[in-house]
Design brief:
Elements lengths: L1 E5 L3 H11 L14 E5 L10 E10 L2 H7 L15 E2 L4 E8 L11 E4 L15 H4 L33 E5 L3 E3 L6 H19 L7 E5 L3 H12 L5 E6 L2 H9 L4 E4 L5 H9 L2 E3 L7 E3 L2 E6 L4 H9 L1 E9 L12 H5 L3 E4 L5 E4 L2 E4 H10 L9 E5 L4 H9 L1 H4 L3 E4 L3
Parallel strand pairs: 9-10, 9-14, 10-11, 14-15, 15-16, 19-20
Antiparallel strand pairs: 1-2, 1-4, 3-5, 3-7, 3-20, 5-6, 6-8, 12-13, 17-18
């Protein structure tokens, strides 16, 4: 089968790192970069608790682009095993496994929670985090029957969504009801990321919430807040007009375009804040949002999140920020801000019960509280991976939101 793999090799890493800033296409040039498009055998089932899945759609995540552009922090490198097939946003059908006929049957449409926690790793005494249901915080990500890997799409044995076939532990697999189409299915994973951040940090009904970023995660945060019937005021700071339209569609009260000379003034007005002039440097904001969801992970977006949060407010970081110099953290202590990270999905309190995040996402889609299929704007066969990655990396020129592979 065909697959797109990432394999760290120092010469390729250095070439990509040096040239990529000037010629971005080198990031997906398989002759020079760490990305490889190849034929490989199907991954094997580790044991009887695993199933084999044929991929229908495999999404391209911002974290995947970050990986290919070599922007990941070295702090994540112990939690991968090379070479690995990329792709953790997955909808597919089950084709093989010992569980067929009991829990699953051949042809079941499923989505995959890719986190490789204690259960998937075959660890008999789960870590304290997994015992509590906080699977994204698993302490044994490098142990057990698998090679190191945070998730499917970063572990060499499992395969990934950027191929035709992968394997997953039955604990990671969720059946899709008929009411949910495949385009919503491939959105369950990113929507679950947003749900996790909102359910762990729920806005109050009278709050003003600022969502920074009009990409998939930012739009999913807005959609999650509204699907959960939280009647707060939402202001979305987005880069492109087509993102503003979608932010409004999914429930943003107001949208502000990221225009260099004007957005600070526009955002100040929208949030009812006040601009103060320092001796030098960017404007100081007095007032702002009660809560900010930062969904970009860049220097400017994090700086804006910190300064546009009112005294005593909360900043939730979803943007997968890495090593970033030049951020002024003064407002964190001066305004006593609560800064919270959010990673992936887990187990949430939902309708009075502890429920896996993926199950909540599926429930909200099934009950028509949210339809995320319009966010899938582009589909490509795996062979056209270079065009797909260019599209995913150049959202403005192609009005792209979610780009997915459709392996044959």
């Amino acid at each position: 089968m065909k697959a797109l793999q990432f394999n760290y090799k120092m010469p390729r890493y250095l070439i990509t790192k040096l040239v990529g800033g000037f010629i971005p296409s080198v990031y997906w040039n398989t002759r020079l970069s760490c990305l490889r498009f190849l034929e490989q055998s199907e991954p094997e089932l580790p044991n009887e608790d695993w199933v084999k899945i044929k991929v229908k759609y495999g999404g391209i995540c911002g974290s995947d682009l970050n990986l290919l552009s070599l922007n990941d922090s070295p702090a994540t490198s112990p939690y991968v095993s090379f070479p690995f097939t990329i792709g953790h946003e997955i909808v597919g059908v089950i084709t093989e496994g010992s569980s067929l006929g009991t829990e699953f049957k051949q042809g079941d449409r499923v989505v995959v929670d890719p986190i490789l926690s204690c259960v998937a790793r075959g660890i008999k005494e789960p870590c304290p985090s997994c015992q509590k249901g906080d699977y994204s915080l698993c302490e044994f990500k490098t142990e057990g029957i698998l090679s190191p890997g945070l998730l499917i799409g970063a572990c060499r044995e499992t395969g990934g969504g950027w191929s035709s076939i992968l394997v997953a532990h039955k604990n990671q697999v969720y059946k899709l009801p008929e009411e949910i189409d495949d385009l919503n299915g491939v959105m369950v994973e990113p929507f679950s990321c947003a749900l996790h951040s909102v359910l762990r940090n729920p806005p109050k009904k009278d709050d003003t919430v600022l969502v920074i970023g009009g990409g998939v995660i930012g739009l999913c945060v807005i959609a999650a807040i509204r699907a959960l019937d939280i009647p707060c005021r939402i202001v979305a700071l987005v880069k492109h007009p087509f993102q503003a339209e979608l932010a409004s569609h999914y429930g943003a009260t107001e949208t502000v375009l990221l225009r260099k000379q004007k957005y600070v003034e526009d955002l100040k007005d929208s949030l009812g804040a006040q601009l103060l002039k320092p001796l030098f440097g960017p404007e100081v904001i007095q007032g702002g949002a009660n809560m900010v969801f930062e969904c970009v992970g860049k220097k400017q977006s994090i700086s804006d999140a910190l300064r546009f949060t009112r005294n005593g407010g909360k900043v939730v970081l979803l943007g997968l920020a890495g090593i970033i110099d030049g951020i002024d953290w003064t407002t964190v202590w001066l305004n006593e801000l609560d800064v919270k990270g959010s990673f992936a999905y887990s187990t949430e309190l939902y309708k009075g019960e502890n429920v896996r995040t993926f199950e909540i996402a599926i429930d909200l889609m099934r009950s028509k509280k949210v339809d995320l299929s319009p966010l899938v704007t582009h589909r490509y066969p795996l062979e056209e991976y270079q065009d797909a990655l260019v599209t995913a990396s150049n959202k403005k020129s192609r009005s792209a939101i979610k780009v997915v592979f459709e392996p044959s």
